[in-house]
Amino acid sequence: MYREHLRLTQAEFAEKYNTTQKNISRYEIGGAEVPADLEFYMVRDGLNLNWLVTGNGEMIASVGYEIPFLTSAQALRFDPKKEIPDPKSHSGEYPKASTVFVPLRILSYSTDLRAIEAFDSRMAPLFHAGDIVIFEATGWNESGIYLYLMGGKLHISRAVEKDNTIILTMAHNNKTIPYDPSTFQPIGRIVAVVKDLVWEYTK
């Protein structure tokens, strides 16, 4: 149905999504399960994830939102106090290579969002290296999982403020470490993660 909505032949659809016409035919007749990466790219292009999973709602998502996707080098230079609060207030558009498309629901957290690829697995099983994490680019807000700068390096940990101390916890070993708040430079609180191409929310 989605292919027909796009008015593409099976061969054209296969070329668009870097697969074969034979695979598309098998998916359409139920002879094989649609792989997660193909589902991801179709949702990215406007297919409604809820419709895809449950069959409910409209086939085509009515709205979505693009947010900047930062490299680790960009995140190291990122200063939430100097950034423009709303990405949409920038003149022009972000290059496609530096944005990620997110569901509109995510705006319930903030319109000041950024994305970065998780660079290690110390927050496993919540997320692993390579997963995409979405964070509020507002510095410290309240306790939560944070992308932060410490000692000139990027880190991701659960952070809790208690008695004028920041307590950091790694999920993989539950080790807690107290820090002086002056050494903790929060970039933003993580609100969602794309894990195995499925949206999961952290709060």
Quick overview:
The chain is of the alpha+beta class. The protein is built from six helices and ten strands.
> How many strands in all?
10
**Uncertain segments:** 84-97
CATH superfamily (homologous) name of the largest domain: Umud Fragment, subunit A
The largest β sheet comes out as: 10 strands, mixed
- Please, how many domains? 2
Named at the architecture level, the CATH assignment of the largest domain is: Ribbon
Which CATH C-level class of the largest domain is it?
A: Mainly Beta
Radius of gyration: 20 Å
Helix count from the secondary structure assignment: 6
CATH topology of the largest domain: Umud Fragment, subunit A
From the N-terminal CA to the C-terminal CA, the straight-line distance is 35 Å
State which percent range the strand residues make up. 25-35%
Give the mean pLDDT. Answer: 79
Helix content: 10-25%
Based on helices, strands and strand pairing, what is the structural class?
alpha+beta
Order of helices and strands: HHHHHEHEEEEEEEEE
Anisotropy-based shape: elongated
